[in-house]
UniProtKB/TrEMBL annotation, chains A, B, C, D, E, F, G:
It is found in: Cell membrane. This is Mechanosensitive ion channel protein MscS. It comes from the Bacteria. The chain crosses the membrane at residues 12-34, 55-76, 82-102. Residues 176-259 form the Mechanosensitive ion channel MscS C-terminal domain. Residues 63-103 form the Mechanosensitive ion channel transmembrane helices 2/3 domain. Residues 104-168 form the Mechanosensitive ion channel MscS domain. It is a multi-pass membrane protein. Keywords: Cell membrane, Membrane, Transmembrane, Transmembrane helix. Coiled coil: none annotated.
């Protein structure tokens, strides 16, 4: 622990402090530039859709932070004479372990790249993937964030996002099953519902066309199941479905058509259900 | 940071701008050529079926975009003296991680190639694969898109499409189970349904032959289950099935044949079901 | 872009056109030869069973197409000076990724080879594999096609076909469970069914021997379950099973033997089921 | 395409024909020798159990066919100057893909070897493995065949046969659960069943010892469950179980002991179950 | 076992004791420094949010312990002339086994790094991951600890934390389903509940806005299901949900609106449910 | 096929016969020695527990057979000039495939070694592992055999035995749930059962201590569930549990305490459950 | 087999005997030293918690046995001139197979190390991991042992212990759901239970604070579900939960508040539930 060592240590610490400050400054400035850049593009010739813009703004900042911090880390390690490149390129057991351990990281970044490049989804879209459903609130280089109805934030590594279901691209369809009693006048029920459905688009602007009864999808034990199909604007199928359910219920009530409770036919026998004296029927 | 560096940076930026413009132009021109090419082929000697045409048009454009952008990316990186080839060929830990991480990408493209080459499905087909069902709206080099009845767009990497169920190639079959009460005259029920089925093909053009009763597929607790089998045009089995269900219900009503509710036979015992004083039967 | 380049490009395009025409001609001629070859073998000394013939005809054509197109592709690529062999043999990261990505392809072809070689199933067999059931309509080098009752075509990579259940090789067995009430005369029921079963083979030619009652397989809450076992020709167990169910039902009706509905024994208590004033029993 | 090429092609075709004929002859002769060999061993000093003999006969033929055809294939390929050895030993991308793709094949053969060597099961045994149950009808080098009760032939690669349940080696046990009503005289029921069980071995030769009542295995909501345990000859536990069920049912009927239906205790309340006017209890 | 060996052994033991003492001291001192450092930062210019502070304090200590102990272990091993570096770099079979076995360790550390770096969650957050839910109580280099409501401590390797659901970042939503009887005046029920919901935010400060009835989400067999949606502060959705349930119940009682019990419609038949003498209807 | 070849073939066959005879003799002699060795150890100074002895006897024979047969196989192959060592050491594609295919074999043997070395279970223990439960009847080098109650022999590769549940090492506990009616005098029921439990250890020698009532583990819809806990000798928990169930049932009957049937509270409404004319409530 | 060979064999056997005796002695002595060492540490300056002591004692002995036996095995093998080091370092096919096969072993030991190092659990803790729950009775180098309530010993390789749930570290919580009838005075029920809960901590010393009613967690079909939350000492949540259930039941009985049975509302219709003559409503 001679003085030279102390001097070298001091120098290193100074360098580290300088690197950290530099990194902070670069990120602050970079973030501003990104905001301005996407702000201006709205009027320039290279306009991009508003849908992609939020995505790209967030992604650019995210990428900037990763790159700056990664560079800073490598610079700091080199300050202490740790050669990252050699470390990573080194083969042997450690290399094998690192290579296997790091493959998830590489897969996440490749997947992230394709999510952006293929425009699979943008910030604000409602998607389902990797077992969760919700609105995309951030697409990053390594992870994406999705917010459910219930407010939970799901943080998903991009490599887990193999298959995506996007609800925000195309028109949706509200599918409502209505149960009609076997005992009621089935054709009148169909006619009453059809009349109702014809009136609905005028009251619900998110309906794209007149909903229709597809037909009898099930002859269930206690009821006939009719299926109603209504095309709606994207993401409007939930409120439209709830509205159809309510209006159908009220209209059927008005017309005195029965929505059936479960039925049962009961035979009562007089024996005790036991076998005393061969009494069993 | 000497002036030479600034000049080189300026040059690089100019080159990048040039590459981006070039890529945009190539894609626009290429897209036009592809449209024209497939448009003309309709009358030329190398006609292809309409079914494959939409698929190939979309695929060609998709491939064009990938190739152009990839080339542009490599050119830009080389502008900044990053040798992509060496990067990819480099072995060591990083190489191992990249190799493992990228295998999904390679598998996607190989699978995509075989989907096209073997004509597993075309744009517009109704297929089931990887846990989703819907109409194919795009077959790309890396991913395919499928749209469900409900309007959701499923984006599926081709590597996930291992096993495909195609509903659009061959005739479909509507299979309807009708329940008949044990108490009714079973043979008359069979006869009534058979008469109805014979009349149906004249009313439903998508029925390919007279539907038939296969027989008794279940002696369930409360009912006898008859199965009706009706061959239909591809994808018409759903509406035909719904029509059969409705008509069978109405006809059985007319003829007074019972569609059974769940039955139960009840024995009432007089004790309280408790054991006070050995009262239990 | 000197004239020499244009000339070389022209030459290349001519070569490509020539290769494509050649490939088309080879496939057409090859297909004819295959048809003739298998047609003639019917009378020659090297006869093969009809069952394998359809399989081999389809497979030969399928293989021809793959080989011709693959050769054509390699020739076209070499026209543009892309050496496929070197590409495939190349090690490094890309090689690793391709090697892993392509292993599915190799596994598919190996599996396909063994399906044919071991005669696991032929075109026309009814098989169950990889979660689907249906008739085999094509066995290819890489994928096989199976058609379900419902008309869906399942396209299955051969590598997914690990375990096969073949219904078309051996006689099948219809297994029918008949429920008899605890209250009925159980031995008479058994005797009545046995008499019926003895009459059946004369009426159903696909029954191979007299069906028999195996015995009481369950003493269920509401009924005694008898199991009937009937050996049939391959694939005839479904219609035979349906016939047995129908005839047993009709015969038991005739003989006044009860097919039981679910039973329940009910004790009614006079309290309200609440605890007001210690009223609970 | 000079005449020399034609001559070489002709020679090659002649060689192929010769190889095919040779292979066919070798297989026919080999099969005969195998049949004779195992036929004679029955009296020779190296006797093997009948159980293993069928297995080994089938396996020997199966191995013979694989070896001959494989040799023939290699010879034919070498006729056309394709060096199989070099192909297989070749490293690089193709080698990697083939190596991974072929590992299933190697695993199948290793597993197959151990099935025979450890005598896990023989042709004719009833086994359960890889999700199927049935009689073994063939053990091959790569796959084994199992036939279910229903007549389906399951073709299972030996590599899938990791865990085997063999029903044919040791005595089996019929386990029958009998339900007795809470209301009946439980000890008398036990005594009646015990008397019956003592009589049974004289009537059923496949019972190895007197069956016994293990005791009360469940106090279920509506019934007491007694378990009967009967040791039987291998594979006889199914018929013995059915016989016990039938005899116990008849005996309990004779003795007037109740096999209980599901019970329920019902409290009727006078309110409507709604809350109008605080009417709820 | 000459004296020299004994001396070397003695020296080694002394060195080990010295290393252990040194490690203990370094950890004690380091822990103090870490505590002071984060304590001071509260007023310095580089302030960090309180949320991250607890996380970083715990993590820093955790990392310190790992690094010190690992260094000590290597030093001790080298005392006994075991070269750890060579051991790890050594290829061959042992290296392969170690490399594969250690990949989990590497993956854990990489994942742990990204959890901190991307601020996926902090100590004190309520998260769901890897099948458990609870409050984060420690984020370490290799494992994180989560405490459930029930007091169980879950110790999860960071590599298992692929997908995280964080409940503490954003506002939550209480979703309550209320069942209304088909027989009641549905619109009045809706109105009564709406009035109640309007009053609630004044009484519950954790409600962020007035809760609302989304609509009819199900027409169930016995009841109409209304869904109530209430935005709340993070983690307050559980108590808010319980409060809404209670208040809705009490209000509906007051207003005499029925919360429905399961319904059933019963047809009583006079026959015995048997078939004696064709008596069946 | 010159005479020299015939002579060498003859020599080879003679050698093979000699090897086979030698192997048979070695196995017979070795088996005897093993039997004697373990027989004598019973009195020698190196006594081993009886529990391990059966295991080691079976294992030693099993290992002997493997080693002898493997050596014989290698010797026979070398007779025909096939160098097994070179074959196995050979790299390339075949080596890769064999290496992957054989890893299961290696894993089985390593696992088998640890089962013996760590004394996880011995022949005769009742264990649960790999989804099966039963008595261990053989522990081999590669596979172990387990026999279920029903007599099935499960043959399990040791590599599948990752996690073992051993029932034969320590005392077991019989856990019996008793249901008591809400309507009965709950504290008296508890007292009656407690009295019974105190009497039981004197009658059942396999009970290790007085069983106790743990308490109320569930307030189920129709009953209160009490849990009884009884420590027993290993494997005696099944018969003890059955005995407790029977005695509790009889004692509760004696004392007139009710074991409850499922209860239901029924409200009868007078309407028809339909909505004709607003008739609903 | 010359005399020299016999002499060398004799020497080898003598050496083996010597090694075995030495190993036995080393283990006996080592075990004693370990016992003494941990015994003394209780008063020394390097005290460790009692919780870790049992763990470390067992682990030290376990490690000693492994190390001694492994060394002995290597020494014995070298006696017979088998070089273990060369065997393990050998590459080629065998090496590949061994490397893959042995990775589980390495993973087990690495995991075991971290279980101890991170103090995830100690001997005596109640933990849940790898699908089993119970008290830890041994933590070894390769496997750990867990004993369930029922007395089963689970032997779990450390590599299977990825995620651990430790119940013994922190206070537990008893969570009890109480059902209250819709018809009862809900607020009085709440008040009665609250009074009871306030009295309980004085009677149950393992309760850490006054339990509280969280609120209404479900409006179920037949009942309102209240949840009670009680913090307890570690592992005391089960007995506390049972006590709460019992006391709540008794108190509600006293106060005449109903614990509801399942309810049903029944509409009786007069028709037969069939359709004869349009008789259906």
């Amino acid at each position: 622990m001679n003085p030279e060592l102390w001097i070298r240590l001091g120098e290193a610490i100074l360098q580290v402090i300088f690197i950290v400050i530099l990194a902070t400054v670069v990120i602050k400035v970079g973030t501003k530039i990104i905001d301005q850049f996407y702000g201006r593009r709205k009027k320039g010739p290279f306009r991009i859709s508003a849908r992609r813009e939020t995505t790209l703004t967030k992604l650019s900042k995210n990428t900037l932070i990763y790159v700056v911090y990664f560079t800073a880390l490598v610079m700091i390690l080199e300050t202490f004479s740790i050669n990252v490149g050699a470390l990573i390129a080194g083969a042997g057991v450690a290399g094998l372990a690192i290579g296997f351990g790091a493959q998830n990281l590489v897969r996440d970044i490749i997947s992230g790249f394709f999510i952006i490049f293929e425009d699979q989804f943008s910030v604000g879209d409602f998607i389902g993937t990797a077992g969760v459903e919700g609105f995309v609130i951030e697409i990053g280089l390594r992870t994406s964030k999705v917010k459910s109805w219930g407010g939970e934030i799901h943080i998903i590594p991009n490599g887990n996002i193999t298959q995506v279901t996007n609800y925000s691209i195309d028109n949706a369809a509200a599918i409502v099953d209505v149960k009609v009693a076997y005992e009621s006048d089935f054709e009148r029920a169909e006619q009453v519902i059809n009349e109702l459905l014809k009136e609905m688009p005028s009251r619900y602007s998110s309906m794209i066309s007149t909903p229709e009864i597809l037909g009898v999808v099930d002859l269930a034990p206690s009821e006939i199941t009719l299926r109603i199909f209504a095309e709606t604007l994207p993401m409007e199928h939930w409120p439209v479905g709830r509205a159809i359910r309510k209006e159908v219920k009220l209209r059927l009530d008005e017309e005195g058509i029965e929505i059936p409770f479960p039925r049962i036919v009961m035979y009562s026998r007089e024996g005790t259900g036991g076998v005393q004296g061969g009494e069993r029927v």
